Every structure is written in C-alpha cells, then in structure tokens.
Amino acid sequence: MLLQTWTEVLQQSFQDLWLGIAAFVPNLIVALIIFVIGWIIGAVLGRVVAQIVGSLKVDNALRSAGFEDTFNRAGFNLNSGAFLGGLVKWFIIIVFLVASLEVLGLTQVNIFLQEVVLLYVPQVIVAVLILLVAAVIAEVARNVVAGAAKAADMLSANLLGSVAKWAIWIFAILAALNQLGVATAFVQTLFTGVIVALSLGFGLAFGLGGQKSAADYVERLRGEVRGK
C-alpha cells in the first residue's frame, strides 16, 4: 500500500514536470525567434546608422577639434559612426529582448530593462547626436567667422574663429549633460556663466581686432571730407 502511494506520487510529479516542460517549450521557441529577429534588425539598422554618420565626415571635424588624441590616450579609436551605430543596434536588441522575456513571463527582469536601460539609452543617443552635430557646426562656424574677420582686415580673425567654435562646443556639451540629466541645476548655472564669459570674450576680441579696421575707416572718412 505504501509502495503504491509513493509510485502514484512519483508518477504525478513526473507528469506535472512533463506538462510544465511541454507548456514552456513553445514559449521558449517563440521567445528565441523574437530575439533572433531583433538581433538581425538591430545589426542591420546599426550598420546603416554607422554608414550614414560616416558619410557625414563627422570624425574629420572631431579630429580638427583635437579629440582624436584624447580618444587614443583613453585606448579608443575615433569612430563616431561605429559608436552611434552600436548604440542603435543594442537598443533595438534590448527592445526585442524585453518582448522575449515578456513571452517567458520574466516580469522582474523586464521591469529592470524598461526602467533602467530602455529609458536611458535614448537619452544617450540624443546626447551623442547633439555632440556630433555640434562637431560639424563648430567647424563651419570657425571657418565662416575667421573668414569674415580676415575679409574685414581684423587682426584677431583666428581668435574670433576659435571663440565661435568653442562657444558651440561648450553649448553642445552643456546641452548633452542636460539631456542626460547630469546635475541639471549646476549645468543651468554653468550655462549662464558661460554665456557671460563668451559675451565678454567676443567683445574683447572684436574690440581689439577691430581697432585697425576702425582706424582705417575713420581715416578714409577724413580723406573724403578733405577732398570735398
């Protein structure tokens, strides 16, 4: 009688285990299919983004700003396309991973991924985009301002160009930090201070560089008045 009872218990246990496995395997297969699809889509989109960023020649602007040496000292190669493409790739993969875990019923892991990873990765991508766009705009602004100042015979043409370039870089860095939510109040205070400092810098550079141009212009006016 006791042996029969133990036999029934073991039989019921193995039956429950088999039913559990039979119910879990289809969900596991579906979850794996979703994850593999996400990996493929993420890899393709990451490669596309890397090629697009590479075609914009952003790395050339970063090199001209002197960032390549900084990356090399840190042990990294300057490749903004690969970096941004990697962010996009892993973001897509994590999105599909969340869907896979939802199929498997792993709720706690999903909550962590959604609250920590998926909410923060887009902010990182936006911050990186801000810096990449700033790299291009800063280089263009430096050339335009320096060229205009040289055309006006200003002595501080290169200084004005550098001020314009680094003004854009500073604004971009502060905007990126604000996007990431890093010390928001401090960043806002620093932003105000930077505006004041740059205003003074532009004023001094323009005033010192424009002295010769202003003197030449006044001299031409005097000559015209005397000629009349």
Can you walk me through this structure?
With 228 residues, this protein is mainly alpha-helical. The protein folds into two domains: 1-119; 122-228, Helix Hairpins, CATH 1.10.287. The protein has helices at residues 2-55, 58-64, 67-73, 80-104, 107-118, 121-151, 157-180, 184-227. α1 (2-55) runs antiparallel to α4 and α6 runs antiparallel to α7. The longest helix is centred in the N-terminal third of the chain and has 54 residues, at 2-55. The N and C termini lie far apart (133 Å). The model has no long low-confidence stretch (mean pLDDT 72). It comes from Candidatus Kaiserbacteria bacterium RIFCSPHIGHO2_02_FULL_49_11. One of its GO terms (molecular function) is mechanosensitive monoatomic ion channel activity. InterPro entries: MSC_TM_helix (IPR008910), MscS_archaea/bacteria_type (IPR045275).
